[in-house]
Amino acid sequence: MSSTEMETTEMIKDHGEIDGKAKLRKWLNMNFRIEMTDGRVLIGVFLCTDRDANVILGACSEYLKSNDGETEEPRVLGLVMVPGRHIVSIKIDDTMDTTSQKYYYEE
């Protein structure tokens, strides 16, 4: 591989990294809805993640489904770390009002 090809590969790699970081920063302080492998649903403010896809949510509430399929009253959890291996899906949840819950990430 020539030095020009290596530089191009490095630039693409760096550009992809920058895009990923920008996307994550855009999602900071947004409400996330995370469905877990055991059927629980967590809704909270996205604060950070790591390489293992663990997610930290602030002001988090847990929603369970009862035996008859109806959603029970939420249980307030506060600050939680959701292990990446237990996450089935993540969606941006726009059903909650975020004006009362604000967290800020500072570099």
Describe, in plain words, how this protein is organized in 3D:
There is one protein chain. Strand 1 and strand 2 (41-49) form a beta hairpin. The longest helix has 25 residues, at 3-27. The protein is elongated. It has one helix and five strands. With 107 residues, the chain is α+β, with helices and mostly antiparallel strands. 23% of the residues lie in helices and 36% in strands.
TL;DR of this structure?
With 107 residues, the chain is an alpha+beta fold.
Radius of gyration: 18 Å
On the 0 to 100 scale, the average pLDDT is: 81
How many DSSP H or I helices? 1
Helix content: 10-25%
- What percent of residues are in strands? 35-45%
Please state how the strands of the largest beta sheet are arranged side by side: 4-3-2-1-5
Low-confidence stretches: 3-12
The largest β sheet comes out as: 5 strands, antiparallel
Following the backbone from N to C, one meets helices and strands in this order, namely HEEEEE
Helix-strand makeup class: alpha+beta
Kindly, what is the distance between the CA atoms of the first and last residues, rounded to a whole number of angstroms?
37 Å
For the secondary structure, the number of strands is: 5
Based on Cα principal axes, name the global outline.
elongated
